[in-house]
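Supplementary Data S3. Sequence and structure tokens for construct A.
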Amino acid sequence: MKRTLSLLLLLTACAPAVQPPATAPVPAAAEDTCGAAPYASLVGQDGTALEKVLILKPVRIIRPGMAVTMDFSPARMNFDIGPDGRIARIFCG
């Protein structure tokens, strides 16, 4: 019994290490698939600044506490409005 246990421990020590899974590729949301780059200057401005900008693409304005669906649309531009009423970030998805 002792010999079997020793042999089992020895074989376990020789087994190859399990490699962690490869990191996931960068999601498409990190890419500018919706053409948000030209609007980067709006970040930090009051949310009402969006009223003066013509955007002929799908747009979603997300306000604090607002329910948002989890659907992903790479062509949609999202404007995240912070609790202070200013545009906190712009992202695709």
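Construct B, processed identically:
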Amino acid sequence: MVNLCSDNVSGALPQVVEALAAAASGPAMPYGADPWTERLEARLSEVFEREVAVLPVASGTAANVLSLAGLTPPWGAVYCHLDGHVNVDECGAFEFFSGGAKLIDLPGSEGRISLSALDRAVVLAGEHDVHVAQPAAVSITNVTEVGTLYTPAQVSEVAEVCRRHGLSLHMDGARFANAVAALGCSPAEVTWKAGVEVLSLGGTKGGCLAAEAVVLFDPAKKREMEFRRKKAGQLFSKMRFLSAQLVGWLEDGLWLKAATHANAMAARLGVGLDGLDGARLLGPVEANMAFVDLAEPLRDGLRARGHAFYPAAPAGPDAVRLVASFETTEADVETFLADARALAEG
């Protein structure tokens, strides 16, 4: 009936499919030397209000680990939140593609790294010699794994710790569009203007078929990253098909319109469930994810009616995660809520 497991379950935006189809006929130079890839870099330079270098890849894992590998020597350490996707869900890919660098996870409330824990960890590592991986970079996620946001001011606070210790700052933006739409700020304000050096820009969750990008706010770093992308098997011969998706996604602000809709559907789910017998919203819905405590009879009853969603065990034994996408309709939300109300009322 209604699948709220992830925004990965959605299809693709029609405009993205049309853009892909338009790129499918006729010859074009391979390996990124095509008009679509050139157009993508120019468009993202406009979006971010400065010249950027852009390397399209096919997965969020590739975008994350290549970005971080480019910031870290093999003996380096990257600090991230303990729930960060790069730490929990990428199967050691960073360690592999960085040549053995180390991820160090840190605590922090609401999905954000504790600044004091970060500062303390970096200071302690710096006091040791060659026996300890040396601090190189920090990775933050926006939207975080628990659905919260980093505001530009909060990103700047992390960046200040990085500047103080000479570290680079990376942002995992698998749901970057949702974050920008929710914050109401410009993409520049929450990235390079706040101190981010490299962004993993996610398009797949936002309506592309399979398209992400490494966005370098220092274009001078592009050449090294191009070699890393090739070695990782992410340099596609027909790169135009990745770039065309992202160009179509960005056209006329579509990426933010789609994200705004997804955010609104998640908020509607949260408000509709909160207060039902057996349901409790665990925190404000800041983007396109709602985390809710659902009593077992309610969970089982909703699943028996065909609805799908994932548990969110770190948030509690009864916690579930409900994720809306550009494809989630008001009718979907109302169907889910009507079934929840019927079950809660017995």
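The chain has 13 helices and eleven strands. The chain has two domains: 13-252, 255-344.
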